[in-house]
Amino acid sequence: MTNFLYTYISRVPSFSRLIVLSMTLVLFIGCDKELEQFPSNAFAKDNFWTSESNANIALTGAYRGAIEYGTQVVPSDWWTYCGIVFMEFATDNAYDRRGDNSTQNRLTDGTLLPNNNVINGYWKGSYKRIAICNDFLENIGNVEMEQAKIDRMAAEVRFLRASTYFYISQFWGSAPLVTTTLTPDEANNVDKASKAELVSFIISELKASAEDLPSFGQISGSEAGRASKQAALAFLGRMYLGEENFAEASKVYKEIMDMGENIIDPDYASLFTPVNEASSENIFGTQYFGGQAGNSLPQHAYPAVASGWHIVNPLGSLADAYGFDDGTSLSYDDPKFDYADMGANRDPRFRYNLLWDGSSFGDKIYDCNPDSTESLDQLTYSKQATRTGYGLRKFFDESFSGNLKSDYGGNVPIIRYAEVLLSYLEAELEAGNPITQQLLDETINAVRGRASVGLPPITETDAATLRPILRNERRIELAFEGQRLWDIIRWDIGDEVLVGDFWGAPFPNSTLYPTTSKKIDPQSRWYVTTKNFRKGVDDVWPIPESEVNVNPKLGN
User: Fold this and answer.
1) DSSP per-residue codes, 42-72
2) What's the mean pLDDT when you consider all of the chain?
3) What does the pLDDT read at residue 43?
4) What integer is the mean pLDDT of 394-421?
5) Nearest alpha carbon to residue 376 among 297, 318, 298, 302
6) Nearest-angstrom CA–CA distance, 433 and 179
7) b/e code 308-328 from CB counts within 10 Å (16+ = b)
8) Residue 105 contacts residue 95 (beta carbons within 8 Å)
9) DSSP H or E segment with residue 212
10) pTM for the model
């Protein structure tokens, strides 16, 4: 797939390519003060905003935001692989191999403090992107080019800015609402806006940007990665869901569906690899290009046998959420369950998304049994290997043979059509509208019935009974796509699902298990960690301590 970033940089001289790849942020990043709102351009503004080519460079900078290429352990942006996939460490979906002291883990284990470097990374990345967007919107009108191009670019940047404020509103609630370039003094004395003010701004901006953005079907292959009307509407739908305005959410998601330009792709696994990332199921995603703007997730998450660092460790609670391929829930006592091959008879998405003991990864065998003392991937508390007995398969082309840090070009989805359909069903259910078989077939059954998954259709129309089915479907379909923590917070279930002991895979025949697992489970599951989510505390992030030290008004 030809992505937007590479399409543009391939058209400009090599020096300009370096600017796009390495110095896009330098063009617009703010000063060294904590709230980065004062862009200090590498070019004087009078000289920069003079041509369409420079406007394209600036637009690329807005899309990049604070995204960094190469490996990172703390998110610099909501849309880096670190910002999306590693967010799962704070949920019941995954565990960070670096252990309980991982600051992602601390988001929800009862030890979150204002000096947490993860929330600091998201905060700084957010206001970096906002600064870039504000500068762009203040200057794009000065460029001599077709008004239609100016309008489209402005709509894209308004979408990017509003999407960033969406995350701020959902995780911090109250925060500064900055829509113009600020001086350093202004930035360091800014007031917080209420959550209601943020939400109102986000809704207004997403509606306005949707009006001026082309639809998904109107975006050419050479423009892949640019925002569409559907992307703006999908974030608008998220905003309405987050605010429990289910009637409006339903209308927005139905509008996307009625446009008829997106599909549920028959091949689930390929959606997350370069071979099929251009599928019309992928509405919007983070664009990577191997060798120049590479995705380093393979280095971080490949198993040790494939030279990876195995940072991402799916938890048993997620693995067990994938039932059997006949549609029934998982039970270790069911004859269909096979300890020797846990992928047998399972929801195919278990096999597409996870690695388990004895499964293959490319041409290698993933051997993580606690008794396999010679294996690089042996389940222990010390090796650079799994901490749960599971590994990550999703997002990876297993035939890839390049440099794990720099050569992989797989994109990371941010919005998929599957989310739109599941969200539409949720909005209809929570709005109290009748649940019909037709509605189920148009939404959840379309998702779970795709050719490569092929699960039996859901027929439950009672709202109370359907709700946990739908929530589980959303969890397993969107696993590792950065949605789970938001879902937990907005459903107000943190004190239900993020409290207590967490376990990994079962190893009932392991000789070493009884003496090596830190806690013993009747089902012989490996002990991983314990969480103690604090309701009313951990569902709203504190503004970073470093920010409050500069501007005490942010702590009020």
Assistant:
1) SS-HHHHTTSHHHHHHHHHHHHHTT---S--
2) 92
3) 54
4) 97
5) 302
6) 38
7) bbbbbbbbbbbbbbbbbbeee
8) yes
9) helix 195-212
10) 0.92
Residues 6+ apart with CB under 8 A from 508: 339, 523, 524
Judged against a pLDDT cut of 80, whether residue 5 lies above it is answered with: no
State the CB neighbour count (10 A cutoff) for residue 275: 15
Contact 106, 434 (CB under 8 A): no
CB 301 within 8 A of CB 312: yes
Give the residue carrying structure tokens 């002991």.
501
pLDDT for the residue numbered 2: 34
CA distance 109 to 538: 9
Burial class, 271, CB count within 10 angstroms (exposed 0-12 / middle 13-18 / buried 19+):
buried
Instruction: Evaluate whether 214 touches 395 at the Cβ level (below 8 Å).
Output: no
Please write down the HEC assignment for all residues of 24-46: HHHHHCCCCCCCCCCCCCCCCHH
b/e per residue 329-353 (b: at least 16 CB within 10 A): ebeeeeeebeeeebbebbbbbbbbb
Percentage of the chain lying above the pLDDT 70 cut: 92
Token couple for 237: 């739908």
193 three-state secondary structure: strand
**In the predicted structure, residue 23 carries a pLDDT above the cut 70:** no
User: Which residue bears the tokens 């019935």?
Assistant: 449
Please say whether the beta carbons of 214 and 152 come within 8 A. Answer: yes
Across 265-271, average pLDDT: 98
In the prediction, which pLDDT does 73 show?
Answer: 87
Measured between alpha carbons, how far is 226 from 512 in angstroms, rounded to an integer? 52
288 and 294 Cβ atoms separated by less than 8 Å: yes
- Bridge partners, residue 38, by sequence: none
Q: How close are the terminal C-alpha atoms of the chain, in Å? A: 47
Q: Maximum CA pair distance of the chain?
A: 73
| 489-513 pLDDT tens trace | 999 999 999 999 999 999 999 999 9
Kindly give, in sequence order, each residue whose CB lies less than 8 Å from that of residue 240, ignoring residues fewer than 6 positions away: 203, 246, 248, 249, 252, 427
Is 84 in contact with 41 (CB distance < 8 Å)?
A: no
Q: Distance (Å, rounded) from C-alpha 97 to C-alpha 114?
A: 23
Token pair of 102 as six digits: 């991982």
- What sign results for the dihedral spanned by CA atoms 227, 232, 237, 239? positive
Check: CB of residue 494 under 8 Å from CB of residue 533.
yes
Task: Tell me which residue of 354, 349, 352, 356 sits closest to 473, measured CA to CA.
Answer: 349
